[in-house]
Amino acid sequence: MICEDLGYMILYSRSGLSRTLTHEETVELCHKAQDAGMELPKYIMKEMMHDLKLIKFRYENE
User: How far apart are the C-alpha atoms of 36 and 7, rounded to whole Å?
Assistant: First the structure.
């Protein structure tokens, strides 16, 4: 995966909360997941949102 090609992410939890990450935060998180040798959703579940339900990728023009 080329992290720089990702837009921004919206993370949704099973408890109904959502969090929007900027493009820069998304790219940084992607690189950290790659460095850890993990898939991005699994890394997010381990490091920041344990009850992750859904990830939406969006781009600035959407």
Answer: 21
Residues in the chain: 62
Mean pLDDT, consecutive 10-residue segments, the chain of 62 residues? 93 97 97 97 96 94 58
Contacts 24+ apart (CB under 8 A), 16-20: 19/49
CB 55 within 8 A of CB 48: no
Could you give the CA distance from residue 47 to residue 33 in angstroms, rounded to a whole number?
Answer: 10
Give the chain's mean pLDDT.
94
Integer-rounded Cα Rg, in Å, for the chain is: 11
